[in-house]
Amino acid sequence: MYGQTRILFTMSRDGMIPPVFKRVNPRTFTPVPNTVIVAIAVGLLAGLVPLSRLANLTSIGTLSAFTVVSVAVMVLRVRQPDLPRTFRVPFYPVLPLASIVFCVVIIWGLPASTIAVFAIWVAVVLAFYLSYGIRHSRLEQSGTSAGDRT
Asked: Which of 12, 44, 46, 141 is in Cβ range 3.0-4.6 Å of 21 for a Cys bridge?
């Protein structure tokens, strides 16, 4: 939950989601409204959705994120080979490729209903991004593409 509040804060600061998520308490500099929203959402999910289904949905989300990061490591190595890197990936490209393969295999083993719900969730988020995020993105407003930003 802590990590999610920070991710939403950063996305809001970049204009990808509504500004309510970037508001911070003036004394503590913590995103209090964001934390309350996330806590209510997680509480509702925990109270209304069976634990096994939540576990599967959490797993597919995490595995998808790991897959995207592994792909991004490989893409950045090709597109921006001179980009300063504070961490070197050992056994490149074997490790990122193995990560992608194993994540996809585990995702494939999840129930079809989990994959369907995840696909619907991705479609909803993509629709939100296309209708709100692109128009409000600071990158879009500055005319800089994500690949140009270092």
From this structure: 12
